[in-house]
Amino acid sequence: MKILVIGAHGMLGRTLINRLSHLSDTKNPYPEVVAADLEHVNVTHELSTTRFITQVMPDIIINCAAFTNVDACETQASEAFAVNATGAKNIASAGKQTGAKVIHISTDYVFDGTKNEPYTETDKPSPVSIYGKSKLEGEIAVHEISDNYVIIRTAWLFGPYRNNFVTTMLELGRKTRAVSVVTDQHGSPTYTNDLSFAIWTIISLNLRGMYHVTNSGTCSRYEWARKIFELTGDRISVHPVKTADYKRAAAVPQNSSLNCTKYTTATGHKMRPWQEALKDYMKVCKLLATNCTNGH
Ligand SMILES: NC(=O)c1ccc[n+]([C@@H]2O[C@H](COP(=O)([O-])OP(=O)(O)OC[C@H]3O[C@@H](n4cnc5c(N)ncnc54)[C@H](OP(=O)(O)O)[C@@H]3O)[C@@H](O)[C@H]2O)c1
Hints:
The protein is built from ten helices and twelve strands. It is α/β, with parallel strands linked by helices.
C-alpha cells in the first residue's frame, strides 16, 4: 500500500510520517509512505497537483496541508481559501482521477461553538472565522468530488516539531512567570501521535465518511494551561480571563468539543484522556525540564 502525505512538514504531517512508517497489520504490511510538502507540490495549483499525484500514484492521499494560522486567515482570506478550500478540491479531483482514497483532515472550528455539549458528525457546521469557513468549503469539495474519502475533524493539536499551545504557554510562563488564559473556550486537546494512530486505524479498517477524532475529555484553555504547569512543577500564576477581554483578529467557538462515539464504535478503539496524552508528549519531548525543546 502506498500512502502519500501532503503537508508532511507540518505538526501532524511529520508525526504521521513517523508513525505510519512503523505501523502495520496483517492485511496491510508496512505501507510505503511518500512525504510531500510545499517544495514538492503546491496544492493551490490544480494542474501541478494532478501531475504530482499522477506521478506518485498513491493508494491513499492524506491531506494535512493547510493554512492553519487562525488569526492570519482573517487578513489573508484569499490565501486561506486557496489552501484550505481550493487545495482540498484539487487533491480530491486528482484522487478521483487516479483512483486514490482521500483522507482529509479538518477542524472543530467548522462549528460556531454555541452547543452545550460535544458536536456530532451530523450537527450543522456554522463557522465563525475565515479559517473555519475555508476549512468547511474544503470538506464540502471533498464530499462532492470524491467517491472514496474520509474526513477527520480534530481539534487543539499538540505534538513535536512545531510550536503549539503547550510550547507557547511554557515559553511565556518561563519568561514572565504569569500567563492569562481564557476560561470560556472549551475543547479537547489532541496529541498528534494519538491522532496518527487513529488515522492508521481508519485506514486499516477501510472506513469511509466523516469522523470526529480527538483525545477524550474536554477542558477550557485555562484548565489546559493549569495542567501544563502542574506537570512541569513550575510555579507560574495562571490568571483566568474571558475571550472578550483578550483581543484577537478571529472569532473562535466557545465550545468546540467533538463527540467521537462514531469513531469508537466503528473501530473499537477509544482515544485516551487528553491529560494522559499531554503527560506522554511532555515526557517524550523533554518539556518537563526547565530548558524546553520541541523536537526529537
Ligand atoms: N493545529 C491545530 O490545532 C489543528 C486543530 C484542528 C484541525 N487541524 C487541522 O489539522 C491539519 C494539520 O494541521 P497542522 O497543525 O499539522 O498544520 P501545520 O503545522 O500548519 O502544517 C501544515 C502544512 O501544510 C503546508 N502547506 C501550506 N500551504 C501549502 C500548499 N499550498 N501546498 C502544500 N503544502 C502546503 C505547510 O507548509 P509551510 O509550513 O511551508 O507553509 C505545512 O507544512 C490541518 O488540516 C488543520 O486544519 C489543526
